[in-house]
Amino acid sequence: MCGPAFLTRAPLFVTIHSLESEVPLNSSRTWKSGEICRIPGLYRCQNCHLAGREFTREFEAGKVFPMCDSCPEKDVTWRLLKPAAVRATA
Ligand SMILES: [Zn+2]
């Protein structure tokens, strides 16, 4: 009797090039008010920082960077201080 020959040929998947998964980071990691937040985390108002104040806020991805609460300027620059830790959705 001939036993069945099991040829386990697992298909080999070559690394898929997914360009979309790599979001190019803003080299300076700064964004202006009105721009879309792409990286959730803690941001600092650069205008405040230059004026000697420390004003930080947390933003979520998808939010539009607002004006700064303590700046008279309408356009401020937000700088990413610390990306938010990935939280598991409860
Ligand atoms: Zn400010």
Description:
This protein is mainly β and 90 residues long. It has a domain at 27-83. 6% of the residues lie in helices and 21% in strands. The protein has 1 helix and 4 strands. It has one helix at 46-50, and strands at 30-32, 41-45, 56-59, 77-83. The protein has a 4-stranded antiparallel beta sheet. The longest helix is centred in the middle third of the chain and has 5 residues, at 46-50. The chain is rod-shaped and about 85 Å long. The termini are far apart. The model has no long low-confidence stretch (mean pLDDT 81). Zinc ion binds next to helix 1.
Explain the layout of strands and helices.
Blueprint: E1 30-32, E2 41-45, H1 46-50, E3 56-59, E4 77-83
Antiparallel strand pairs: 1-4, 2-3, 2-4
The structure holds zinc ion.
Strand content: 15-25%
Helix content: under 10%
Q: What is the mean predicted local confidence, pLDDT? A: 81
Hetero compounds: zinc ion
Question: How is this structure best summarized?
Answer:
The chain is mainly beta and 90 residues long.
